[in-house]
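Query structure, 440 tokens:
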């Protein structure tokens, strides 16, 4: 018989190890160091594992002692007698003691003749009764009546014993959030720690110097000044709070505490990603119409949008620093463009594919421009532009805890500060299909 306390402790220890492994795998996939909150979680899990190890040692020693004692028990004491009632065995045997029949089939046929079969209008045969009774060494009719009594008795099923049926929790907790932030990853997250105040500014050149040909010797050169203005960024706070009982932490398996912390981290990442994507979509005001929802017109629209973004809609000189390098799409437009690209690639007779699409990833390409699906963008959104001219800043405060001894509980929050914006909105352009009947 197993030790339920030892099994529970060992399961909890395995859960702590798995929790630490998940944190390390996630940091490794994102090629980053552990954040403060994750380091605190690792230390908390390690401490819990040490506590469990101290409890497990005496229990394992006890199990070794009990196992050794079981080995020394006489074999006779381990045997269990079959239950009997009235001195007779409850089992009903239908195997003949003597080889009175050549085959088991002959015995069964004679057995049916002996007891009869009303459904086929077969009456019991006294001759068959004698042969079968002799083979069994007992009265076949009495044996048949006992079997009928058993069949007619009250049947017990699991519906009669719900209180004895365990309800095990199997496997890991299903989690449909992966913590990925495709938009933030595409523009990069810059550190916000150390930047004081509620807001800050990013310097941006709004007016360049000028040069020109000197028309006359000793004539005056073109006079100009460099203008640099600040692009404002405002800090925003994101976070969540959970008030959890000490019992919910100590009694649950898998631990509710680990699940709460993990979920807060994933929700924080998802919320800040969606917020930044929506701010980005609002900041981009330049638009380019796509005539029809075909690959040919999307290619034309993309080139026209690239010109708009590269030249600030004709107000700026085209330069390598303004060439577009990313396409961001909402979920529906990821599916729409992906469908067009896939069908075009399948039916193309020249094998000249305009882009790459796959339903198993957030990324693809059109005209060699990376195309990224951003779930937080509003429906119908396709934005073309230069990724380094959009910025995202973040400082994760991480986990905050407060013990509530009066109610035997614990309050925990997780959050951080973020800021986002575009340095030059003219370096981006939205594309959309022109509705039937005209109009962008």
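Result returned for the query:
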């Amino acid at each position: 018989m197993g030790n339920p306390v030892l099994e529970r402790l060992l399961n909890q220890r395995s859960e702590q190890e798995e929790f630490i492994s998940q944190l390390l795998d996630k940091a490794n996939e994102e090629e980053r160091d552990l954040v403060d909150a994750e380091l605190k979680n690792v230390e908390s899990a390690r401490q819990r594992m040490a506590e469990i190890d101290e409890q497990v040692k005496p229990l394992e020693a006890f199990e070794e002692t009990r196992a050794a004692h079981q080995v020394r028990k006489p074999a006779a004491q381990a045997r269990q007698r079959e239950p009997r009632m009235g001195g007779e065995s409850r089992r009903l045997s239908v195997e003949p003691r003597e080889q009175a029949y050549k085959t088991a089939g002959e015995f069964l046929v004679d057995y049916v003749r002996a007891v009869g079969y009303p459904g086929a209008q077969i009456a019991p045969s006294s001759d068959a009764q004698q042969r079968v009774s002799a083979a069994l060494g007992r009265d076949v009719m009495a044996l048949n009546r006992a079997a009928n009594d058993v069949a007619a008795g009250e049947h017990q099923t699991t519906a009669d014993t719900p209180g004895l049926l365990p309800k095990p929790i199997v496997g890991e907790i299903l989690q449909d959030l992966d913590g990925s932030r495709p938009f933030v990853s595409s523009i990069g997250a810059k550190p916000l720690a150390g930047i004081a105040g509620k807001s800050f500014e990013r310097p941006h050149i709004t007016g360049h110097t000028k040069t020109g040909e000197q028309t006359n010797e000793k004539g005056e050169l073109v006079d100009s000044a460099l203008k640099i203005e600040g692009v404002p960024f405002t800090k925003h706070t994101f976070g969540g709070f959970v008030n959890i009982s000490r019992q919910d932490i100590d009694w649950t398996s898998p631990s509710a505490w680990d699940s709460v912390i993990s979920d807060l981290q994933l929700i924080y990442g998802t919320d800040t990603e969606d917020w930044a994507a929506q701010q980005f979509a609002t900041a981009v005001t330049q638009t380019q119409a796509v005539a029809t929802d075909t690959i040919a017109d999307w290619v034309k629209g993309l080139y026209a949008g690239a010109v708009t973004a590269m030249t600030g809609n004709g107000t700026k000189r085209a330069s390598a620093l303004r060439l577009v390098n990313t396409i961001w799409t909402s979920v529906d437009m990821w599916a729409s463009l992906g469908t067009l690209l896939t069908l075009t690639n399948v039916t193309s007779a020249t094998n000249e594919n305009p882009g790459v699409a796959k339903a198993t990833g957030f990324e693809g390409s059109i005209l060699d421009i990376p195309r990224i699906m951003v779930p937080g963008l509003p429906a119908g959104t396709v934005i073309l532009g230069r990724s380094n001219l959009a910025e995202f800043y973040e400082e994760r405060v991480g986990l905050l805890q407060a013990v509530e001894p009066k109610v035997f509980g614990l309050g925990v929050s997780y959050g951080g500060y973020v800021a986002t914006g575009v340095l030059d909105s003219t370096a981006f352009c939205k594309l959309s299909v022109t509705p039937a009947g005209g109009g962008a």
